[in-house]
Specification:
Layout: H1 2-21, H2 23-26, H3 28-71, H4 73-78, E1 83-86, E2 89-90, E3 102-107, E4 110-115
Antiparallel strand pairs: 1-2, 1-3, 3-4
Length: 117
């Protein structure tokens, strides 16, 4: 019984020494510092991902803006075209007009009335 207790005591003593030799007991702040480092790494990674996403969305915005600008009726007017209207309806074909009809021509810098002859 004494021998068994002695062995149990030695086992527990070795276990205690091993625990006390652990870096958690020797330097408890080291574990916290390691976690701070991990948090800093996560923050840097997150900031990088946010910047990448921001740049992609900016490029997408510029692309959509250029498409919108190209399709703009006002942009068409700046290239020398006009919008032809009759009674607030846009005329898309010459077949829609008859001799004597009055139309409204919209240009880039203003409007003029015209009569079809």
């Amino acid at each position: 019984m004494r021998l068994a207790l002695s062995k149990k005591y030695e086992t527990l003593q070795l276990r205690l020494q091993k625990c006390m030799a652990s870096y958690v007991f020797k330097d408890p702040m080291k574990m916290i510092q390691n976690k701070y480092i991990l948090v800093d790494q996560f923050i840097k990674r997150l900031e990088t991902q946010i910047q990448t996403k921001k740049q992609k969305e900016k490029e997408r915005y510029i692309t959509l803006l250029s498409k919108l600008d190209a399709l703009s009726p006002l942009k068409t007017l700046t290239r020398g075209y006009a919008i032809v209207e009759q009674n607030d309806n846009i005329i898309k074909s010459a077949k829609q007009l008859k001799t004597g009809d009055e139309i409204n021509l919209k240009f880039m810098d203003g409007e003029k009335l015209a009569k079809i002859q």
